[in-house]
Amino acid sequence: MLLWIQAAFVLLSYLQIGNAVTVTVSSTASHPIPTTLWGQMFEDINSGEGGLYAELLQNRAFQQVTPGTTASLNAWQAINGAGISVIKETTPVSAALPNALHVTIPSGKTGQVGFGNTGFAGIKVTAGQTYTASFYYRFPTSSGFRGNAIVGLQTTSGQVLGQTTVSLSGAQTSWTQITVTFQPTTTPSSTANRFTITLDGTAASGQTVLAEMGPSFFRLPGGNNLEGQTTANRWQWNATVGPLVNRPGRQGDWGYVNTDGLGIYEYLTWCEDLNMQPIMAVWSGYSLGGSSVAEAQLGPYIQQAIDQINFVIGDPAKSAAAALRSSLGHPQPFALTYVEVGNEDNFGSSTYGYRWKDIVNALKAQFPNLHFIATTLVNNPVLSPVPTEYDVHNYNTPTWFAQNSFYYDDIARNGMKYFEGEYAAISTNSSNIFGAVGTGRLSYPTMQSAAGEAAYMTGLERNSDIVFAASYAPLIGHVTNHQWTPNLIAHDANGVYRSTGYYVQKLFSLNRGDEYLPSTLPSRTGTLFWSVVRKKSTNQIIIKVSNTAAASAALTFSLPFGTVGTSGTLQTLTGSATASNLPTNPNLIVPVNSTITTGKTFNFNAPAVSVSVITFTAQ
Ligand SMILES: *[C@@H]1O[C@H](CO)[C@@H](O)[C@H](O)[C@H]1NC(C)=O
Ligand SMILES: *[C@@H]1O[C@H](CO)[C@@H](O)[C@H](O)[C@H]1NC(C)=O
Ligand SMILES: *[C@@H]1O[C@H](CO)[C@@H](O)[C@H](O)[C@H]1NC(C)=O
Questions:
Q1: What are the recorded GO MF terms, alphabetically (predicted)?
Q2: Beta strand 217-220 with 21-24: parallel, antiparallel or unpaired?
Q3: In the predicted model, what is the mean pLDDT of residues 455-475?
Q4: Has residue 467 been placed in a domain?
């Protein structure tokens, strides 16, 4: 049986080599590749809240909930008969946080009584790791009570995993903050655990996987996240800075409350830590619900945008917002080149004309060196001042991405630059691209969707004289608590799962060139795509190949260089078309390295449904 399969394979490769596509590579570059080309976009949807940053508790400060309702107790539970409810405090802990948890311990109770928080669909507990918990408490009326509270982690059945004791005083009728640390002694196999009170954890796992991908820019604070459902619920930079106790949070777009624990300063320091440049958006006077701010009322919003930019790059001696940045420990400005005006304003295009004009003219006057990115369809409506950059979004099928890899080849070279701020193959059903999550949509990126995106990305690389940046979206989503699929990275309380699409982003991002080498063009209607770049500092040629077909495909590369290395590195991502990396089998499809024979002419057989990167030296 095995021999029969091998025989069939030899015959197949022979036939394909006979029909190999020959790709001749030019030794002269056509254009430099912008250093910003491959990056990532942040969207709060199913990600910013829920474990991406170090907060492990859900609904930790009862932000933006209606006191007294069942919903206000989301993620909280009584233990052993305690009475718990969310109240509007008469003397709140801060102006930003008007609500508190009111706890009554009925008389006659024995054993530990109290309350717990179940986190974001669970809490991962690891023995030996230090957990920091912080909470504020007060008693409504003064008493002589003195007692110990146990702050800790338990399984849902009550097994103690780690805990510490704090002393509470009944005389304490004004808010006082308690901070404790402890180390669990047990690592339970399940994440069905709970905490007794507010806690900040340790490192954010999201940061590690982002660094591994090596993105060069980070689009913030998201698209829809910026807009808000209403003007009042828009993202406002100044509500997201300073001590957590001063952040009111906001009703987010997707049915949950944003704590704003991950705020503008955290985004910016994150960018610095990972060597990414921010592509930052300002609110454009339009929210998701469809309402536009009238031109005469735009003034305060424009001022808020000016303040936001000053927070990032302003002079602390001249701007209160910049002085705030300085007081937080960052007197130097952050790097900032691109400011996006709104998000997907093709939906608000009837009013974008005056909003763009008024916002951009005001911002240009203050910040003449910044570039402003428009978010309507290109030249629809025609805008003044004429944008120099547009943000284009594409969600579609894997096939669409492959068939559109020549999209930018046909776009006029007239000085306009393009940002693919969001793209992803999200469904295989072309008549149902935006079908409800769970129906027409992919749950996780598949090998087929990743290959389609890679085909498109070879086109972005070829057209990087006008495409200056591109980011997949969305970046990260919780395995069970999400509003959108597919996501590049999935996470739950147990860990982080890298998708096939993630590996494509990583392969393109870590294997960049600094100039593009023209080569024989792929067929526009075919299933085999490639792009060739050179990294001058190391004399490396890097060839990326996507084969979206169900059969392998043979290529012959011809390299008209003086010297070409006789062997190179081959990195290949391949698997069955509909397979995904699931939380239950997260490493099903990962890039595999091997050595490939190279030379002035060499053959390469691209496996069925695969993405490959071939690297070798030539000069
Ligand atoms: C943020 O600033 C705006 C004015 O630009 C103000 O209306 C709003 O109250 C501020 N929000 C917070 C939480 O400070
Ligand atoms: C594709 O989507 C359309 C429109 O929702 C639906 O009628 C059709 O059944 C879907 N096709 C498949 C194969 O699921
Ligand atoms: C595969 O090769 C690339 C490029 O040489 C290298 O960066 C990467 O670390 C290798 N991966 C493994 C698992 O060896």
A1: alpha-L-arabinofuranosidase activity
A2: unpaired
A3: 97
A4: no
Q: What is the pTM of this model?
A: 0.81
Answer for the pair 36, 217: CB distance below 8 angstroms, yes or no.
yes
Q: Is residue 160 part of a domain?
A: yes
Query: In angstroms, rounded to a whole number, what is the distance separating the alpha carbons of residues 154 and 208?
Result: 27
Out of 186, 211, 236, a domain closes at: 211
Residue 386: half-sphere exposure toward Cβ, Cα within 13 Å: 6
Atom of ligand 2 nearest to the CA of 435: 5
User: Which residue out of 507, 573, 593, 595 has the highest number of ligand 3 atoms within 8 Å of its CB and is therefore the one to mutate?
Assistant: 593
Is pLDDT above 70 for 455? yes
Number of domains in the chain: 2
Q: Give me ligand 1 centre to Cα 20, in Å.
A: 63
Q: Give residue 5's pLDDT.
A: 22
Residue pair 505/38 in contact (Cβ under 8 Å)? The answer is: yes
Q: How far apart are CA 604 and CA 612, in angstroms?
A: 10
CA of 204 to the centre of ligand 3 (A): 25
Both tokens assigned to 247: 């952040």
Q: Are residues 23 and 115 in the same domain?
A: no
DSSP 3-state assignment of 100?
strand
Same domain, 77 and 169: yes
Considering only CA atoms, which residue is closest to atom 5 of ligand 3?
Answer: 569
Q: Enumerate residues lining ligand 1, CB below 6 A.
A: 236, 238-239, 248, 304
Residue range of the domain that includes 158: 71-211
Q: Are residues 125 and 184 in the same domain?
A: yes
What's the gap in Å between 237 CA and the centre of ligand 1?
Answer: 9
Out of 233, 235, 236, 311, mutate this one to test ligand 1's pocket (max ligand atoms within 8 Å of CB): namely 236
Same domain for 21 and 105? Answer: no
415 falls within a domain: no
The domain boundary, picked from 211, 239, 259, lies at: 211
The CATH number of residue 561's host domain is 2.60.40.1180
- Residue 238 CA: nearest ligand 1 atom is 1
Nearest ligand, measured from the Cα of 95: 1
Q: Which residues does 533 contact at the CB level (< 8 Å), separation at least 6?
A: 33, 461, 512, 513, 514, 515, 516, 517, 541, 542, 544
Q: Which of 167-171, 198-202, 290-294, 419-423 has the lowest mean pLDDT?
A: 198-202
204 in the same domain as 76: yes
d(CA 237, CA 593): 44
Q: Is the CB of 571 under 6 A from ligand 3?
A: yes
- Is there a single domain that holds both residue 106 and residue 197? yes
Query: What is the residue type of 266?
Result: E
Contact 308, 237 (CB under 8 A): yes
- With a 6 Å cutoff on the Cβ, whether 509 touches ligand 3 is no
Half-sphere exposure of 580 (CA within 13 A, CB side): 19
Q: Choose the weakest-confidence range: 11-25, 335-349, 352-366.
A: 11-25
Residue 138 vs residues 58, 59, 67, 82, 206: alpha-carbon distances, Å: 21, 19, 18, 17, 35
Confidence label for 13 from pLDDT (cuts 50, 70 and 90): very low
What does the mean pLDDT of the chain come to?
88
pLDDT tens per residue, range 80-120 = 777 788 888 888 888 888 888 887 765 555 667 778 888 88
Q: Are residues 161 and 110 in the same domain?
A: yes
**Is 250 within the bounds of a domain?**
no
